Structures are given as C-alpha cells and as structure tokens.
Amino acid sequence: MDLYACGFNAHNQLSPNPTPSPQDLLTFHKIISAKQSISIHLAALDFTLLEVDNALVALGLPPPTLLPALSPRLITAASTDNTRYTTLTLRTRPHILLHDATLPRPSPNYSPSTPSLAEPSLAALSGAGTLCTIDTPHPGHHFIQQSPSPLHLYAHCTSRAPLLPDLPPWRPAQLVASEETFTLLTSLGTVHTWGSARHGALGRAVSPASPAAVPGLLDFLGGVPVRKVAAGGWVGAAVSRDRDLYLWGGRMGDGERIRGLGRGEEGVLVDIEGGVDVVDVGVGMGHVVALDGRGRVWAVGRGANGQLGTGGRVFEEDWVEVRGLVLGEGMRVKSVACGPYSSFLVVGGKD
Predict the structure, then answer these.
(1) pLDDT at 273
(2) Contact criterion met (CB below 8 Å) for 160 and 130
(3) Close Cβ partners of 37 (under 8 Å, ≥ 6 residues apart)
(4) Strands (E), 178-286
(5) Which pLDDT belongs to residue 73?
(6) Which of 82, 135, 148, 151 could be cross-linked to 112 through a Cys-Cys bond (beta carbons 3.0 to 4.6 Å apart)?
(7) Could you give the strand order of the β-sheet that contains 342-349, starting from the edge strand earlier in sequence?
(8) Three-class DSSP category at 245
(9) Backbone angles phi, psi at 295, to 5 degrees
(10) Quick one: pLDDT at residue 117?
(11) Of 70, 123, 72, whose CA–CA distance to 96 is shortest?
C-alpha cells in the first residue's frame, strides 16, 4: 500500500525526509509505502500522525511528548484544535487521551466519569477548542458531555445529557468536529449536528424545538442511511450507503463558495459528472475531496496551497477530476482524507 499527499507542507508534515525549506506539493506525491496497512489517524496543521504496518509514524512537528504517550495505545480516532490540544479515542482504557502541547510531559489520561463502560467512548475536539465526548455506561444508553475547557471536561462539564433517547437502539459510529460544530453518525445511518449555526454549518434549520446546541437530525437527507461523515471549516459531508454525496455549510472565504452551497440552512445532494457513485470523502478548511466507485478522485474548493492536487493554486467552485495520478500497475485509490490545507490518498491493489 502507498500513501499519496498534496498541499500545505511548510512544516514537512507531508515529507518523510524533512528538508530545510519545504515546499507545498501541488500534485499528489507518494510519501509512504507499507507492506500491509496504512491509516491516517490525524492530519493537523503542522503534523501528520499515521499508522504504518502497525507502527506509529509522525511527520512534521508533532508535540514532542505526544508519541511517548501513544506508544502502547490502539487509536481509533483523533482530532485537534491545531493550537494546543489533541484528543484521541482508544480501544483500551482510559479510552480517551487528551494531550496538551504546552506541558513538558504527557498530559493525564482522561476516563469518562462513569465507573465502567460497555463500549469505548468517542471524542472530538472542535477548532474553537470545545471538547465533546459520547459515553456508553450501559448498552443502549449514551450520554453526551461537552466543555469549552478540554482539561476540565469531567470536573467542569457544561452539559451532560442522554443522547438521542427517542431513537431505536443504536450505537455511535462516528463523531467528527469542524470549526464550531459536531456531527454524529449513528449505526442506524442517521446524522445529527449541533454547535454553531453560522454559515449553515449545521445543515439544518434552528428553532425552539430544534436548538443549535442540541443534537438535531439532518432532515434534508430524507431518511437516506449514511455510511460516513466528514467535516472541516464550515462544511460537512456525508456519503450514503447508496453511494450518494451530500454537502452542507459553505463558507470558504470572502467571495469563495462551492457551487450549490451557502444558499440556505440545509445541504444539497452533490452531482459530480452527471451522478457518479461516491464511496469516500474528505473535508478540509475550505476544500473537499471525493473518491468515486471507479477509483477516480475529484476535488473542489480552495487550492491556494495545492491541496486540490491539480497542479494549480486556484479556487475551484465546481468539481474537477484529479488527473495524472501515477499509481503503479495494478493499483487504485482506496480511500481519501483531508487535513486543513492538504489531501491524502491511500492506494492499494485492485480487488
């Protein structure tokens, strides 16, 4: 397997062999090869955390105490506010590790306030620094905890409440954060958002019956079951089990908008080349990358750092196919991901 990357590289976060004057990558370059597996745990502004053949690899400028704190862990998810904190969801206790880059040694590990868990928790950290966790003290009973002060989540929690108690039995599948919002995907395929409603980032209307601060269902999906969500900046994305792509939000920058977004509170069904099947999506700080069922890569949005992989630095308001990928014989793109101003492709053998 191989990992390809493009985009912002000022800190060598896309370079396995650091250079004194790193340059942005305007097209996708192969940066890592593996014999068995590659996982992108976290693509931050100044470092990239990977798992390559069951070993942790950090590129760029990770906090010096982060890797020692992670050495015995099994990571399932990670997020960062790109300034101070990094939070990781683990398969083993304490389930959540919160890292403070300003401390001279690893931060304490944070376990949920409940004495035992039927399932590991999920955690996500927004760009504004708000930490949210989902705890499952008993099968079928989920609680959401949230605090603007990550170091004091369990001591000074601003809210702890039952999560979606009216749904049929469900499990949390994904929890992702963007600049000021959180998005939850359940095992039922339903998508729920909460946080700031600015720039349409919630993808739903806000009302007294459905306030911004409380997880609310994305009605515009029309009950279509979703298999993956992604978020970044002020944009959210969902890939349905039927291989359709949905986007909501839309603020890219002054005068910059992805076609079809930013015209209302709710999101849109995306039409790429007349309706190609979409199997994966990544969202950065103003750009989106999608993978279709034929293994082709599509990009839209900001490209000032080369994060679209097209060879240019322009904003693309409509989807463009990323051409010229040289992957090797018998290889195809398996998945995509985005950092704030970067994009990644995991490449493997054809099935």
Answers:
(1) 92
(2) no
(3) 1, 51, 52, 53, 54
(4) 181-186, 191-195, 216-217, 226-232, 235-240, 245-249, 268-269, 278-283
(5) 59
(6) 135
(7) 25-33, 2-7, 342-349, 331-338
(8) strand
(9) 85, 10
(10) 52
(11) 123
Which residue type is seen at 40? Answer: I
pLDDT at 298: 98
The rounded distance, in Å, linking the Cα atoms of 348 and 351 is 9
Phi, psi of 200 (to 5 degrees): 70, 20
185 pairs with which residues across the strands?
174, 191
Structure tokens at 320: 């463009």
Report the alpha-carbon distance of residue 13 to residue 47 in Å, rounded: 5
Beta-ladder partners of 162:
143
Q: Cα separation of 175 and 11, whole Å? A: 28
Q: Would you state the pLDDT for residue 329? A: 87
Q: Say if CB 80 and CB 36 are below 8 A apart.
A: no
Quick check: pTM over 0.90?
A: yes
Both structure tokens of 103: 């401390």
Mean pLDDT by runs of 10 across the 351 residues of the chain is: 97 95 97 94 95 92 79 76 85 73 63 53 89 81 78 53 81 94 96 94 93 94 97 96 94 72 82 95 96 97 96 95 91 97 94 69
**What is the DSSP secondary-structure string of 46-114?**
SEEEEEETTEEEEEE---TTHHHHHTT--EEEEEE-SSSEEEEEESSTTSEEEEETTSSSPPPEE--SS
- 74 vs 95: CA distance, rounded Å: 9
Task: Give the pair of three-digit tokens for residue 211.
Answer: 């306030």
What pLDDT was estimated at residue 109? 54
Model pLDDT, residue 155 = 47
CA dihedral 172, 288, 344, 292 (to 10 degrees): 80
Element (H, E) at 151: none
